[in-house]
Design brief:
- With 359 residues, the protein is an alpha/beta fold.
- The chain folds into two domains: 121 residues, no CATH class; 207 residues, Rossmann fold, CATH 3.40.50.
- 37% of the residues lie in helices and 18% in strands.
- The protein is built from 13 helices and 16 strands.
- The strands form six sheets. Strands 7-16-15-12-14-13 form a six-stranded parallel beta sheet, sandwiched between helices. A two-stranded parallel sheet has the order 1-2. Strands 3-6 form a two-stranded antiparallel ribbon.
- A hairpin with a 2-residue loop joins β8 and β9.
Length: 359
């Protein structure tokens, strides 16, 4: 309510500012940190900002993950930046011009893939207002070691997962697990690979402890060094908590304790390990107990430890259940990362000392 040169607001309050508050929107310059959080053109925050976009004279978007789920993400981000000048005013036209249907079930299309030559064409369209500078080129980042730890399920456990994948139904003891569609099936298979799954009655059905055993080996191998564990499902957290004495990094107090080195084993959910959280002072080992399809959450969680100020080699372990959906998730993350890296390289700028462009 006071006069100031710069105002700061979080993205969750964009709707309040534009639609619910009595404040006039008379900001001539807007800087969006983490522009990728506006990649959903159906989200309220995107729609609200688009309402006042004509009033904004200068707009800048910042993100390290511009296309975390593929090039389709770019449309909404650039629609905000240039009001549709480069990638078009409508998502449908952008999709038709640059993409082909990929995975589908009759008339229902689940995903799209770029047409031949589409990537270069998109990069060229956005290059005049895009600039990328990799942190690894300009910042002193610690060494990084990526490790995949494979765990093998028993024949009985594998058959249970195979039945679920094939028939969308699996029976474990007296509990029946069903999936109504492909998305639900993916969710169930990820849970089952971790060792437990929610039953049809919302009860937790135990399947195996293979990942917990592998996790215990990794914790012991850390030799007392702090370990950060990333989990996805609530029952993952419950089972980890039952096996180990852990502290959840879900408050400012717990984060302070971690950074002081006072927490030997911490757990964190990727959705709460997002943008801007600094955890590099408390440890350098991250273990992915559960995997996520989201490249953005995956990279952002890794960046909590692998960032400037980290003095030790960062080790990131992934617990992968052999011959399960875990393998597909890891492959998808690598493929998405390749697409994003190609985009970042396409608009990369080399700076000489003094800030002059070296093109």
């Amino acid at each position: 309510m006071q006069k100031a040169d710069i105002y700061i607001i979080n993205r969750e309050n964009v709707k309040w500012l534009i639609e619910d508050s009595s404040l006039p929107f008379d900001f001539d310059t807007v800087i969006i940190d983490e522009l990728s959080s506006f990649k959903n053109h159906q989200a309220k925050r995107f729609r609200c900002l688009m309402k006042v976009r004509p009033k904004i004279k200068r707009i800048v978007g910042l993100t390290g993950t511009p296309a975390s789920n593929g090039l389709m993400d770019l449309w909404a981000e650039f629609r905000l930046l240039d009001m549709g000048e480069r990638l078009g005013r409508f998502i449908g036209k952008y999709r038709d011009e640059y993409f082909l249907p990929d995975k589908r079930n009759q008339q229902i299309i689940f995903s799209y893939k770029p047409k031949p030559g589409a990537e270069k064409a998109i990069y060229k369209k956005i290059s005049d207002i895009s600039i990328s500078m990799k942190g690894s080129d300009y910042l002193k980042l610690p060494k990084l070691t990526i490790n995949e730890v494979e765990v093998k399920l028993s024949e009985k456990e594998s058959k249970t997962l195979d039945a679920m994948k094939k028939d969308l139904v699996a029976t474990i003891d007296e509990d029946e697990i069903t999936a109504s569609n492909a998305a639900a099936l993916s969710n169930k298979l990820l849970q089952m690979a971790n060792g437990a799954v929610y039953g049809d009655e919302k009860n937790v059905v135990h399947i195996h402890d293979k990942k917990l055993d592998a996790l215990e080996d990794l914790v012991e191998a850390a030799n007392g060094k702090p370990v950060l564990i990333a989990y996805w499902f609530k029952h993952d957290l419950l089972r980890i908590t039952k096996r180990f004495k852990v502290e959840n990094l879900d408050s400012s107090d717990s984060i302070k304790k971690w950074n002081k080195g006072e927490i030997p084993i911490a757990v964190i959910h990727p959705a709460s390990a997002g943008h801007g959280l600094n955890l590099q002072s408390g440890g350098s080992t991250l273990i992915w107990f559960s995997l996520t399809w989201s490249l953005e959450l995956y990279q952002q969680t890794n960046a909590r430890l692998w960032r400037q100020g980290q003095e030790k080699t960062v080790i990131i372990h992934h617990l992968i259940a052999k011959d399960t959906i875990d393998k597909q998730v890891m492959k998808a993350l690598k493929n998405k990362d390749n697409t994003q890296s190609a985009l970042i390289d396409a608009v990369k700028v080399n700076l000489q000392m003094g800030g002059k462009s070296n093109e």
